[in-house]
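Dear colleague,

Thank you for sharing your sequence with our group. We've completed the structure prediction you requested, and as agreed, I am returning the results in plain text so they can be pasted directly into your records. Please verify that the sequence below matches your submission; if there's any discrepancy, let me know and we will rerun it promptly.
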Amino acid sequence: MHTKKIAVIGLGRFGSAIARKLVLLGADVMGIDNNAERVDDLKDVLTYTVMLDSTDPKALLSQNIPDMDAVVIAIGASFQDLMLTTYALQEVGAERIIARAQDERQKRILEKMGIREIMSIEEQVSNSVAQQLINPSVLMAVQLPDDYEIIEISAPKNLWEKKLSEIGLREKYSLNLVTVLRKTDTEHHILGVPYPETLIQKGDLIILFGKMRDITKFMDINK
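Please find the predicted structure tokens below.
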């Protein structure tokens, strides 16, 4: 299976959280920032970190950015830098660009620049909070286009000690299991690609992908 190579530009609170999560999910992550302290803080966490000016196409090319499967622009302090970085990435031929918008105006500007994948923090946070209020087992929820969602939940009790082949996520619920996180000592670690014989255990976190209505159905049935 191809390991995803993803660059995260902007290692503030939001960008570093995304980068850490991607590492946990098994991706090779390059962290980029123009702040040496932020870069240094994550050098032992991410696959690779580098300090550079992301608005400079030559600097991006020096890190082989066009070879990345995706580039996440998580710059929050300066929308001008975010736009210039977006333009520079387009100039060097980055295949997939995902950009952060802090309000509707920024979102419209990014759309005018041809960016189709835009992260709206307010929407994502409100979606996660709403899900957590309705179902306390929800730890993270990311709403995607076309009513799809990625959700991280504590494995329901009635799934413990069952193999994936017994649970029938696809057959019964039309859901895909992205991965399982298992607690060892004080932290959860990713198990990798799930297989039919993968056993769900007490304390596991499961990450599901599917239509929102199917995820809701799954959680309702497995409360």
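Summary note from our side: The domain at 135-221 is CATH 3.30.70.1450 (Alpha-Beta Plaits).

Kind regards,
the structure core
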